[in-house]
Specification:
It contains two helices and four strands, in the order βαββαβ. By secondary structure, it is of the alpha+beta class. The chain has one domain (2-80): Alpha-Beta Plaits (2-Layer Sandwich).
């Protein structure tokens, strides 16, 4: 699994791009690619958990969504994560 961390700054471009981005996340959740996603409560960023086989697949998910290159959105970290089997 992969954790994607985003940082937000103010700006109308980010807010305008957000509805299409959220629709995409819902579709990716339905197919099992996105396990969880959401903004931090202070709206300074967000966290997305991807269930993909490797870094190239995580990068492909990011590249397919223009939100990740929208002014006001920065991908600050992409790291592999192994959850505990609880």
């Amino acid at each position: 699994m992969w954790i994607v961390e985003l940082t937000f700054t103010g700006g109308p471009e980010r807010l305008a791009a957000r509805p299409a981005h959220r629709d995409r996340l819902v579709a990716l959740h339905r197919d099992g690619t996105v396990l969880m996603a959401g903004p931090y409560t202070d709206d300074t960023g967000a966290l997305i958990i991807l269930d993909v086989p490797g870094r190239a697949a995580a990068d492909a998910v990011l590249a397919a969504d223009p939100y990740f290159t929208t002014p006001g959105v920065s991908v600050t970290d992409v790291r592999e994560w192994t959850p505990l089997p609880l």
